[in-house]
């Protein structure tokens, strides 16, 4: 017969020390894995962008594509260095125009979204009008704006406002309208008024939807500004791209596109940073899922 093993006492100091050391090693491994994951998340976008540009450069060189058809990233970078002052000057104009239209979209979109989300009558009554208005191509609206306000900055601001207004309204209205009816009934039973429900429950509930719409709206606002500047403007990236097209300077056209993309990514990053600081509680589920993937 095999010799009987000495039973481990439940309060054996050696056993507690072994378990404590194992738990400490597990915590350290989890912390190291989390740090590696964060570093990878920070580096991954830059690695993807670098790989995309390298693939673009190699494809253009290998296939001997004419720069008039598709310039290589190196040619675009050279054009950006050559024309950096006009690009910077016109990019500033486009950025200010876009931010002005985007600010108007936030103010009016948030106010209308709260009204529509708070009233079923307004929700069903105004939605067909909003959808129909949003379906109208904004390129068809720009000539009308030029007739009304003339050539310049105002049509570009209004176009940026019109094209970024709809996502904000829809998301804010959805966030407020989806508050649980049971929760509304409980709050009314406790004496809360409709304005109290909207202010203390509806608006916090709509904040994740609101910031999700901001990340969409800020990118499409640049589309509206560039669109109006290509039609009728005295300054801006769109107007610079049209001048470059008339001179058949395709690298400069792509340089304008690159500058616009950089501004869009930068403003998207600002929206994400504000979202993380104000609605971090809404991302707890994703954080828990990341922790579970590390410990699973």
Q: What is the gist of this entry?
A:
The chain is mainly alpha-helical. The protein has eleven helices and no strands.
Describe the structure.
With 296 residues, the protein is an all-alpha fold. It has a domain at 83-280: MetI-like (MetI-like fold). The chain contains eleven helices and no strands. It has helices spanning 13-63, 73-82, 84-118, 120-135, 138-149, 153-177, 181-189, 194-231, 237-246, 250-278, 284-295. Helix 3 runs antiparallel to helix 8 and helix 9 runs antiparallel to helix 10 (250-278). The longest helix is centred in the N-terminal third of the chain and has 51 residues, at 13-63. It is flat, with a radius of gyration of 28 Å. The chain starts with 12 loop residues before the first helix and ends with a helix. The model is unreliable at 285-296 (pLDDT under 50).
């Amino acid at each position: 017969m095999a010799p009987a093993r000495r039973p481990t006492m439940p309060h054996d100091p050696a056993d507690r020390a072994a378990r404590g050391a194992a738990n400490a090693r597990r915590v350290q491994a989890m912390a190291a894995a989390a740090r590696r994951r964060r570093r990878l998340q920070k580096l991954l976008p830059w690695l993807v962008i670098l790989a995309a540009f390298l693939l673009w450069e190699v494809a253009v060189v290998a296939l001997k594509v004419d720069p008039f058809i598709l310039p290589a990233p190196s040619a675009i970078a050279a054009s950006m260095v050559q024309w950096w002052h006009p690009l910077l000057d016109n990019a500033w104009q486009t950025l200010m125009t876009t931010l002005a239209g985007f600010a108007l979209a936030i103010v009016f979109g948030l106010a209308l979204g709260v009204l529509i989300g708070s009233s079923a009558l307004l929700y069903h009554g105004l939605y067909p009008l909003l959808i129909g208005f949003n379906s109208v191509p904004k390129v068809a609206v720009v000539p009308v704006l030029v007739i009304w306000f003339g050539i310049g900055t105002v049509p570009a601001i209004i176009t940026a406002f019109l094209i970024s207004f709809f996502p904000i309204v829809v998301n804010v209205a959805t966030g407020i309208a989806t508050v649980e009816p049971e929760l509304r009934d409980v709050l009314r039973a406790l004496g809360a008024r409709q304005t109290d429900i909207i202010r203390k429950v509806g608006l916090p509930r709509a904040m994740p939807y609101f910031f999700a719409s901001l990340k969409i709206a800020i990118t499409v606002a640049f589309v509206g500004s560039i669109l109006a500047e290509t039609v009728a403007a005295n300054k801006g990236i769109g107007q610079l791209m049209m001048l470059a097209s008339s001179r058949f300077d395709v690298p400069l056209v792509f340089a304008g596109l690159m500058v616009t993309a950089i501004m869009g990514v930068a403003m998207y990053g600002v929206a994400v940073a504000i979202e993380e600081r104000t609605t971090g509680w809404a991302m707890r589920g994703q954080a828990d899922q990341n922790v579970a993937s590390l410990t699973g």
